[in-house]
Write a structure and sequence with these properties.
This protein is α/β, with parallel strands linked by helices. It has 2 domains: about 60 residues; about 190 residues, 3-Layer(aba) Sandwich (Rossmann fold). It has 11 helices and 9 strands. A hairpin with a 5-residue loop joins strand 8 and strand 9. It is elongated, with a radius of gyration of 21 Å. The N and C termini lie far apart (about 55 Å).
Length: about 290
């Protein structure tokens, strides 16, 4: 990293100096929110809150914390996702541990929980929930907080992902209501479910190298790659839904931009009806309801 930066107002070695210099480097690396990320990383390194940093910017950063911060900053400048550096990502106002074995939860996926709530205004109607490709478990566990009578099962092809989801369930006090297994989509499942959730891989294989480096180089390809047309996982999922849905049940699938017509066509072939599609915060049709 170059030292050709504007002078920082606070003395070297202080909180203010570290934040100033880190913000400069992050801005030069085209990180979108450099000042915020600098605070997040330094607060994590010092095991304190962001507010504590702002209270006394001239306080000296302990050497051990400075070393941790320098390591995290170096990795962030190499475009490691900040969620991997912090070890946690919020989803549906809940904290989820993350790892390179799983897709990092995204706010766009909260549209699936909103769609599920719209599908079942009587929350006591949902007793069994299935999450296919569970990753961190964020969809299943968020759903269980909203449907208090329900229990759930999460399936992921990656054993490390299923293990992480199990840890998240325990940390959120939901371990007694959720089970997680490693398996190939719905192949090992014989039961029927009131609500089925899934955020499958849906990016076309050829588009993955063009994604932002935080995603293309650091998130698992198995959670991103939907095959040549982006629909490979949907073909398997939609074909399995009729035998997995309980009478009156619904499935909510996450979509990529522009994929609604193609997935609805797959659903019609399987004998399923579209019951609407909920947009994410950016207005993209994101959560397709099928039943």
């Amino acid at each position: 990293m170059s030292d050709r930066q504007p002078a920082c107002a606070d003395p070297e070695g202080t909180i203010g100096f570290f934040l100033c210099r880190a913000g400069q480097h992050l801005r030069a690396a085209a990180i979108e929110a450099p000042r915020l990320e600098a605070r997040l990383l330094l607060a994590h390194a010092m095991d304190c809150r962001q507010e504590d940093l702002l209270r006394d910017p001239r306080a000296v950063v302990p050497p051990a914390a400075a070393s941790r911060f320098a390591d995290m900053l170096r990795r962030r400048l190499d475009h490691a996702p900040i969620a991997h550096l912090l070890g946690v990502q919020e989803f549906w106002s809940l904290p989820f541990r993350v790892s390179p074995a799983t897709l990092i939860p995204r706010a766009d996926s909260e549209a699936l929980i909103e769609a599920a709530l719209a599908a079942f205004p009587d929350r006591g109607r949902v007793r069994r929930v299935l999450d296919l490709g569970t990753g961190t478990g964020c969809l299943l566990l968020a759903a269980l907080t909203e449907f208090p009578e329900a229990t759930g099962l999460g399936i992921d092809r990656v054993p490390a992902a299923a293990a992480l989801a199990r840890e998240n369930a325990r940390a959120l006090g939901l371990g007694h209501r959720a089970a997680f297994l490693a398996g190939d989509w719905a192949a090992p499942i014989q039961a029927r479910f009131d609500l089925i959730l899934s955020n499958p891989p849906y990016i076309e294989s050829g588009d993955i190298p063009r994604l932002m480096p935080e995603v293309a180089a650091h998130e698992p390809a198995s959670a991103l790659d939907g095959g040549a047309d982006g629909l490979g996982a949907y073909r398997a999922l939609v074909a399995a839904l009729p035998r997995l849905l309980a009478p009156g049940g619904e499935a909510v699938l996450e979509l990529g931009a522009g994929q609604r017509p193609a997935v609805e066509a797959l659903a019609r072939t399987a004998g399923l009806a579209s019951r609407g599609c909920h947009p994410d915060l950016g207005g993209i049709e994101r959560a397709l309801r099928l039943g």
